[in-house]
Amino acid sequence: METSDYSNPEEYPTEIHDYLAEFEQCLGSVDEMLKAMMLVSRSDLQKLEPLEQAKLDLVSVYTLNSLFWVYLVNQGVNPKEHPVKQELERVRTYMNRVKEIAEKKKASKLDKGAASRFVRNALWEPSAENEKKSKGPGKGKKRKMD
């Protein structure tokens, strides 16, 4: 991407110079990232897990639509009234679904056998010896009073 010299204050108000410089830097970053993504072959991407492929595809589509949103704004079109808004919402919905799937996959699974053994062993069961100790004097058999 070719850098421009924004040193001429007659081209635009000087208050926005920092904003324009930052915007230009961000565009350069986007350009570098897109070039890097274009160098990766689709066959390499197919080696990814299906969930990772879905994440990558969704991020790519979301990025492309976001760039189109910026393009519409630069052309003076209100993107909120353009079908790109519905597309971004649709992609966001799928991104949330993929996130839920990923979270379910990470969630620990209950080992029912281990849980039942843990509970069974944690419960106290009185033994015959413990029962005799708990009855103590006057609680067990009645004594004869002479």
Automatic annotation (TrEMBL):
Residue segments, region Disordered: 121-146
Stretches with biased composition (Basic residues): 135-146
A GO biological-process term: maturation of 5.8S rRNA
GO CC terms, sorted: cytoplasm; exosome (RNase complex); nucleolus; nucleoplasm; transcription repressor complex
Keywords: Cytoplasm, DNA-binding, Nucleus, RNA-binding, rRNA processing
Location within or outside the cell: Cytoplasm; Nucleus, Nucleolus
Keyword Ribonucleoprotein assigned: no
GO molecular function: DNA binding; nuclear receptor binding; RNA binding; transcription corepressor activity
Keyword Cell cycle: no
Similarity comment: family membership: Belongs to the C1D family.
Role of this protein: Plays a role in the recruitment of the exosome to pre-rRNA to mediate the 3'-5' end processing of the 5.8S rRNA.
Subunit comment: Monomer and homodimer.
Protein name listed in UniProt: Nuclear nucleic acid-binding protein C1D
